[in-house]
Specification:
- With 324 residues, the chain is an alpha/beta fold.
- It is built from nine helices and 14 strands.
- A hairpin with a 6-residue loop joins strand 9 and strand 10.
- Bound molecules: threonylcarbamoyladenylate and magnesium ion (MG).
Length: 324
Amino acid sequence: MKIYKANNQNIKLAATLLNNEGIVAFPTETVYGLGALASNKNAVKRIYKVKGRPNNNPLIVHIYKIEQLLSIVENIPLDVMKLIKKYWPGPLTIVLPYNTSSNISSIARAGLNTVALRMPNHPVALKLLKTVDAPLIAPSANISQHLSPTSAQHVKNDLSSKLDQKNDMILDSGNTEIGLESTVIDFTKAIPTVLRPGGLNISLINKIVKTSYVESNINEKKPESPGLFKKHYSPNASLRLNADYPLKGEAWLGFGEDPKNLNNFVKMNLSKNKNLEEAAKNLFSMLRYLDKKNVKKIAVKKIQNKGIGIAINDRLNRGAANKS
Ligand code: TXA
Ligand code: MG
Protein backbone atom coordinates (compact mmCIF):
# COMPACT_ATOMS: atom_id res chain seq x y z
CA MET A 1 0.00 0.00 0.00
CA LYS A 2 1.52 3.27 -1.13
CA ILE A 3 1.61 6.29 1.17
CA TYR A 4 0.80 9.63 -0.52
CA LYS A 5 2.21 12.97 0.54
CA ALA A 6 -0.69 15.21 1.63
CA ASN A 7 -0.25 17.89 -1.06
CA ASN A 8 -3.11 19.67 -2.85
CA GLN A 9 -3.11 17.31 -5.79
CA ASN A 10 -3.31 14.20 -3.60
CA ILE A 11 -6.00 15.74 -1.37
CA LYS A 12 -8.08 16.26 -4.54
CA LEU A 13 -7.49 12.65 -5.53
CA ALA A 14 -8.47 11.56 -2.02
CA ALA A 15 -11.75 13.48 -2.30
CA THR A 16 -12.52 11.74 -5.58
CA LEU A 17 -11.84 8.33 -4.02
CA LEU A 18 -14.11 9.16 -1.06
CA ASN A 19 -16.91 10.10 -3.47
CA ASN A 20 -16.52 6.67 -5.04
CA GLU A 21 -16.97 4.75 -1.78
CA GLY A 22 -13.24 4.66 -1.12
CA ILE A 23 -11.50 4.91 2.24
CA VAL A 24 -8.87 7.56 2.96
CA ALA A 25 -6.63 7.61 6.02
CA PHE A 26 -5.73 11.20 6.87
CA PRO A 27 -3.91 13.13 9.59
CA THR A 28 -5.68 15.11 12.30
CA GLU A 29 -4.11 16.98 15.20
CA THR A 30 -4.86 14.02 17.52
CA VAL A 31 -4.24 10.77 15.62
CA TYR A 32 -4.69 9.54 12.03
CA GLY A 33 -8.33 8.89 11.10
CA LEU A 34 -9.78 6.37 8.66
CA GLY A 35 -12.21 8.42 6.62
CA ALA A 36 -15.28 7.57 4.57
CA LEU A 37 -18.43 9.43 3.51
CA ALA A 38 -20.69 9.44 6.56
CA SER A 39 -23.80 9.12 4.37
CA ASN A 40 -22.58 6.14 2.38
CA LYS A 41 -23.66 2.82 3.85
CA ASN A 42 -21.24 0.70 1.83
CA ALA A 43 -18.24 2.83 2.66
CA VAL A 44 -19.18 2.89 6.35
CA LYS A 45 -19.60 -0.89 6.38
CA ARG A 46 -16.14 -1.26 4.88
CA ILE A 47 -14.66 0.90 7.65
CA TYR A 48 -16.01 -1.51 10.29
CA LYS A 49 -14.71 -4.47 8.30
CA VAL A 50 -11.25 -3.05 7.65
CA LYS A 51 -10.78 -2.18 11.34
CA GLY A 52 -12.44 -5.34 12.63
CA ARG A 53 -14.57 -3.02 14.75
CA PRO A 54 -17.65 -4.38 16.55
CA ASN A 55 -20.74 -2.85 14.94
CA ASN A 56 -22.10 -1.65 18.30
CA ASN A 57 -19.31 0.94 18.52
CA PRO A 58 -20.38 4.19 16.79
CA LEU A 59 -18.08 6.49 14.82
CA ILE A 60 -17.29 10.21 15.07
CA VAL A 61 -18.62 12.43 12.28
CA HIS A 62 -15.99 14.96 11.17
CA ILE A 63 -17.01 18.36 9.79
CA TYR A 64 -15.32 21.62 8.74
CA LYS A 65 -18.05 24.23 9.31
CA ILE A 66 -20.75 24.87 11.90
CA GLU A 67 -23.55 24.74 9.28
CA GLN A 68 -22.90 21.02 8.95
CA LEU A 69 -23.34 20.56 12.69
CA LEU A 70 -26.64 22.44 12.64
CA SER A 71 -28.11 20.07 10.08
CA ILE A 72 -26.95 16.87 11.82
CA VAL A 73 -28.13 17.42 15.41
CA GLU A 74 -31.52 18.26 16.93
CA ASN A 75 -30.64 21.39 18.86
CA ILE A 76 -27.52 22.75 20.46
CA PRO A 77 -27.58 23.91 24.10
CA LEU A 78 -26.10 27.37 24.60
CA ASP A 79 -23.17 26.11 26.72
CA VAL A 80 -22.26 23.62 24.02
CA MET A 81 -22.27 26.41 21.47
CA LYS A 82 -19.94 28.40 23.73
CA LEU A 83 -17.67 25.41 24.09
CA ILE A 84 -17.34 24.74 20.38
CA LYS A 85 -16.91 28.42 19.57
CA LYS A 86 -13.89 28.35 21.85
CA TYR A 87 -12.44 24.92 21.13
CA TRP A 88 -13.35 24.05 17.53
CA PRO A 89 -11.51 23.25 15.44
CA GLY A 90 -9.81 21.14 18.09
CA PRO A 91 -9.57 17.86 20.04
CA LEU A 92 -13.14 17.96 21.38
CA THR A 93 -15.91 15.55 20.33
CA ILE A 94 -19.49 16.27 21.37
CA VAL A 95 -22.36 13.78 21.51
CA LEU A 96 -25.83 15.26 20.86
CA PRO A 97 -29.29 13.99 19.86
CA TYR A 98 -29.34 13.03 16.16
CA ASN A 99 -31.65 14.87 13.76
CA THR A 100 -33.42 12.04 11.92
CA SER A 101 -33.84 14.10 8.77
CA SER A 102 -30.06 14.18 8.33
CA ASN A 103 -28.28 11.55 6.22
CA ILE A 104 -25.59 10.12 8.49
CA SER A 105 -25.67 6.35 8.00
CA SER A 106 -27.34 4.60 10.93
CA ILE A 107 -24.55 1.99 10.78
CA ALA A 108 -22.05 4.76 11.56
CA ARG A 109 -24.17 5.69 14.58
CA ALA A 110 -24.49 2.03 15.62
CA GLY A 111 -28.25 2.54 15.43
CA LEU A 112 -28.25 5.07 18.30
CA ASN A 113 -30.42 8.20 18.37
CA THR A 114 -27.33 10.25 19.24
CA VAL A 115 -24.35 11.29 17.15
CA ALA A 116 -20.73 12.24 17.93
CA LEU A 117 -19.17 15.17 16.07
CA ARG A 118 -15.85 16.91 15.85
CA MET A 119 -14.09 19.57 13.79
CA PRO A 120 -10.42 18.55 13.59
CA ASN A 121 -7.71 21.21 13.83
CA HIS A 122 -5.41 20.11 11.03
CA PRO A 123 -4.98 21.85 7.67
CA VAL A 124 -5.00 18.57 5.71
CA ALA A 125 -8.12 17.22 7.47
CA LEU A 126 -9.93 20.55 7.01
CA LYS A 127 -8.92 20.82 3.37
CA LEU A 128 -10.07 17.28 2.66
CA LEU A 129 -13.41 17.88 4.41
CA LYS A 130 -13.88 21.11 2.49
CA THR A 131 -13.02 19.52 -0.87
CA VAL A 132 -15.48 16.66 -0.32
CA ASP A 133 -17.92 19.14 1.23
CA ALA A 134 -19.69 16.36 3.12
CA PRO A 135 -19.27 14.93 6.63
CA LEU A 136 -16.75 12.12 6.97
CA ILE A 137 -16.73 9.46 9.63
CA ALA A 138 -13.21 8.82 10.84
CA PRO A 139 -12.35 6.35 13.57
CA SER A 140 -8.70 6.11 14.50
CA ALA A 141 -6.94 4.33 11.62
CA ASN A 142 -5.80 1.25 13.55
CA ILE A 143 -6.99 -2.33 13.87
CA SER A 144 -9.76 -2.38 16.50
CA GLN A 145 -8.37 -2.35 20.06
CA HIS A 146 -4.82 -1.64 18.95
CA LEU A 147 -2.97 1.63 19.65
CA SER A 148 -4.11 4.62 17.60
CA PRO A 149 -1.74 5.66 14.78
CA THR A 150 0.26 8.85 15.09
CA SER A 151 2.00 8.47 11.71
CA ALA A 152 1.10 7.30 8.20
CA GLN A 153 3.51 4.40 8.65
CA HIS A 154 1.52 3.18 11.71
CA VAL A 155 -1.61 3.17 9.53
CA LYS A 156 0.20 1.22 6.84
CA ASN A 157 1.52 -1.31 9.36
CA ASP A 158 -1.97 -1.98 10.74
CA LEU A 159 -4.20 -1.77 7.67
CA SER A 160 -2.15 -2.11 4.48
CA SER A 161 -3.32 -5.64 3.72
CA LYS A 162 -6.97 -4.69 4.31
CA LEU A 163 -7.09 -1.56 2.15
CA ASP A 164 -7.53 -1.50 -1.63
CA GLN A 165 -4.50 -0.36 -3.62
CA LYS A 166 -6.62 1.44 -6.24
CA ASN A 167 -9.67 2.75 -4.40
CA ASP A 168 -8.25 3.62 -0.98
CA MET A 169 -5.42 5.89 0.09
CA ILE A 170 -3.19 6.90 2.99
CA LEU A 171 -2.35 10.62 3.16
CA ASP A 172 0.88 11.43 4.97
CA SER A 173 1.56 14.64 6.82
CA GLY A 174 4.13 13.52 9.37
CA ASN A 175 3.61 12.80 13.06
CA THR A 176 0.44 14.07 14.71
CA GLU A 177 0.78 16.97 17.13
CA ILE A 178 -1.20 15.79 20.17
CA GLY A 179 -0.75 12.02 19.88
CA LEU A 180 -3.90 11.04 21.84
CA GLU A 181 -7.51 11.02 20.66
CA SER A 182 -10.05 13.78 21.22
CA THR A 183 -11.93 14.29 24.49
CA VAL A 184 -15.48 12.90 24.08
CA ILE A 185 -18.33 14.55 26.01
CA ASP A 186 -21.91 13.30 26.00
CA PHE A 187 -24.40 16.18 26.17
CA THR A 188 -27.45 13.93 25.94
CA LYS A 189 -27.21 13.16 29.67
CA ALA A 190 -28.74 15.30 32.44
CA ILE A 191 -25.18 16.08 33.52
CA PRO A 192 -22.72 16.33 30.61
CA THR A 193 -20.45 13.32 30.93
CA VAL A 194 -16.86 12.81 29.86
CA LEU A 195 -16.86 9.51 27.97
CA ARG A 196 -13.20 9.67 27.05
CA PRO A 197 -10.55 12.03 28.45
CA GLY A 198 -8.36 13.20 25.57
CA GLY A 199 -6.53 16.03 23.87
CA LEU A 200 -8.60 18.84 25.40
CA ASN A 201 -8.15 19.11 29.18
CA ILE A 202 -11.31 18.48 31.17
CA SER A 203 -10.48 21.41 33.49
CA LEU A 204 -10.72 23.82 30.52
CA ILE A 205 -14.08 22.35 29.50
CA ASN A 206 -15.37 22.65 33.07
CA LYS A 207 -14.78 26.40 32.97
CA ILE A 208 -17.58 26.63 30.41
CA VAL A 209 -19.76 23.56 31.15
CA LYS A 210 -19.55 21.50 34.33
CA THR A 211 -18.99 17.89 33.32
CA SER A 212 -18.83 14.70 35.28
CA TYR A 213 -15.96 12.29 34.87
CA VAL A 214 -15.82 9.08 36.84
CA GLU A 215 -12.58 7.23 36.35
CA SER A 216 -13.96 4.02 37.83
CA ASN A 217 -16.53 4.00 35.01
CA ILE A 218 -14.12 1.77 33.16
CA ASN A 219 -16.58 -1.08 33.26
CA GLU A 220 -16.03 -4.14 31.11
CA LYS A 221 -19.61 -5.38 30.92
CA LYS A 222 -21.62 -2.24 30.39
CA PRO A 223 -19.48 0.61 29.14
CA GLU A 224 -20.99 4.13 29.16
CA SER A 225 -19.89 4.55 25.59
CA PRO A 226 -19.78 1.47 23.39
CA GLY A 227 -16.16 2.26 22.60
CA LEU A 228 -15.12 2.41 26.21
CA PHE A 229 -14.58 -1.29 26.79
CA LYS A 230 -11.90 -1.67 29.33
CA LYS A 231 -9.46 -3.48 27.10
CA HIS A 232 -8.54 -1.00 24.39
CA TYR A 233 -5.49 0.83 23.19
CA SER A 234 -3.45 -2.30 23.70
CA PRO A 235 0.09 -3.06 22.68
CA ASN A 236 0.91 -6.77 22.19
CA ALA A 237 3.18 -6.77 25.23
CA SER A 238 1.51 -6.50 28.61
CA LEU A 239 2.04 -3.35 30.65
CA ARG A 240 3.24 -3.06 34.26
CA LEU A 241 2.25 0.40 35.40
CA ASN A 242 3.71 2.71 38.07
CA ALA A 243 7.05 0.90 37.89
CA ASP A 244 10.31 2.30 39.28
CA TYR A 245 12.67 0.18 37.23
CA PRO A 246 12.38 -2.70 34.74
CA LEU A 247 12.68 -6.32 35.87
CA LYS A 248 14.67 -8.89 33.91
CA GLY A 249 13.06 -9.45 30.50
CA GLU A 250 10.97 -6.28 30.61
CA ALA A 251 11.34 -3.21 28.41
CA TRP A 252 11.35 0.23 30.05
CA LEU A 253 9.15 3.22 29.25
CA GLY A 254 10.37 6.11 31.37
CA PHE A 255 9.02 9.53 32.34
CA GLY A 256 11.43 11.98 33.94
CA GLU A 257 14.95 10.93 34.78
CA ASP A 258 15.67 7.26 34.04
CA PRO A 259 16.95 4.88 36.73
CA LYS A 260 20.65 3.98 36.51
CA ASN A 261 21.98 0.78 34.91
CA LEU A 262 19.46 0.44 32.08
CA ASN A 263 22.18 -0.62 29.64
CA ASN A 264 20.85 -4.11 29.10
CA PHE A 265 17.22 -3.11 28.65
CA VAL A 266 15.20 -2.11 25.61
CA LYS A 267 14.10 1.38 26.59
CA MET A 268 12.33 4.60 25.65
CA ASN A 269 11.52 7.76 27.57
CA LEU A 270 8.19 9.63 27.16
CA SER A 271 9.64 12.91 28.40
CA LYS A 272 12.93 13.29 30.25
CA ASN A 273 11.82 16.62 31.73
CA LYS A 274 8.33 15.42 32.66
CA ASN A 275 6.48 17.42 30.02
CA LEU A 276 3.02 15.81 29.82
CA GLU A 277 2.28 17.17 26.31
CA GLU A 278 5.51 15.64 25.04
CA ALA A 279 4.66 12.36 26.77
CA ALA A 280 1.19 12.30 25.15
CA LYS A 281 2.72 12.90 21.75
CA ASN A 282 5.21 10.04 22.24
CA LEU A 283 3.02 7.48 24.00
CA PHE A 284 1.55 5.43 21.15
CA SER A 285 4.60 5.59 18.90
CA MET A 286 6.93 4.50 21.72
CA LEU A 287 4.62 1.64 22.71
CA ARG A 288 4.56 0.56 19.07
CA TYR A 289 8.35 0.76 18.92
CA LEU A 290 8.82 -1.31 22.09
CA ASP A 291 6.25 -3.82 20.86
CA LYS A 292 8.32 -4.40 17.73
CA LYS A 293 11.25 -5.47 19.93
CA ASN A 294 9.20 -8.52 20.89
CA VAL A 295 9.29 -7.98 24.63
CA LYS A 296 6.61 -9.72 26.69
CA LYS A 297 6.21 -6.92 29.19
CA ILE A 298 6.79 -3.16 29.32
CA ALA A 299 7.38 -1.51 32.68
CA VAL A 300 5.99 2.05 32.65
CA LYS A 301 6.98 4.80 35.07
CA LYS A 302 4.20 6.57 36.96
CA ILE A 303 2.73 9.53 35.05
CA GLN A 304 1.26 12.54 36.89
CA ASN A 305 -2.55 12.40 36.77
CA LYS A 306 -3.25 16.00 35.80
CA GLY A 307 -3.93 17.85 32.55
CA ILE A 308 -3.38 15.57 29.57
CA GLY A 309 -1.77 13.12 32.04
CA ILE A 310 -5.37 12.04 32.85
CA ALA A 311 -5.81 10.94 29.22
CA ILE A 312 -2.38 9.26 29.20
CA ASN A 313 -3.27 7.26 32.33
CA ASP A 314 -6.66 6.35 30.87
CA ARG A 315 -4.94 4.81 27.82
CA LEU A 316 -2.30 3.07 29.94
CA ASN A 317 -4.94 1.60 32.27
CA ARG A 318 -6.95 0.30 29.35
CA GLY A 319 -3.81 -1.00 27.65
CA ALA A 320 -2.94 -2.87 30.84
CA ALA A 321 -6.41 -4.34 31.36
CA ASN A 322 -6.91 -8.10 31.26
CA LYS A 323 -3.23 -8.79 31.17
CA SER A 324 -0.84 -9.49 33.97
O1 TXA B 1 -9.26 12.15 17.98
C1 TXA B 1 -10.20 11.44 17.60
O2 TXA B 1 -11.34 11.50 18.10
C2 TXA B 1 -9.91 10.47 16.45
C3 TXA B 1 -9.58 11.30 15.20
C4 TXA B 1 -9.34 10.45 13.98
O3 TXA B 1 -10.60 12.24 14.96
N1 TXA B 1 -11.01 9.59 16.23
C5 TXA B 1 -11.30 8.59 17.10
O4 TXA B 1 -12.39 7.80 16.71
O5 TXA B 1 -10.69 8.38 18.12
P1 TXA B 1 -12.70 6.38 17.37
O6 TXA B 1 -13.75 5.81 16.52
O7 TXA B 1 -11.45 5.61 17.47
O8 TXA B 1 -13.31 6.73 18.78
C6 TXA B 1 -14.60 7.30 18.85
C7 TXA B 1 -15.15 7.22 20.24
C8 TXA B 1 -15.48 5.78 20.62
O9 TXA B 1 -15.12 5.60 21.98
C9 TXA B 1 -16.99 5.74 20.42
O10 TXA B 1 -17.63 4.77 21.21
C10 TXA B 1 -17.40 7.13 20.84
O11 TXA B 1 -16.37 7.96 20.30
N2 TXA B 1 -18.70 7.50 20.24
C11 TXA B 1 -18.99 7.72 18.95
N3 TXA B 1 -20.30 8.00 18.78
C12 TXA B 1 -20.86 7.96 20.01
C13 TXA B 1 -22.18 8.16 20.50
N4 TXA B 1 -23.21 8.45 19.70
N5 TXA B 1 -22.38 8.03 21.83
C14 TXA B 1 -21.34 7.75 22.66
N6 TXA B 1 -20.08 7.55 22.25
C15 TXA B 1 -19.83 7.65 20.94
MG1 MG C 1 -10.11 4.30 18.12
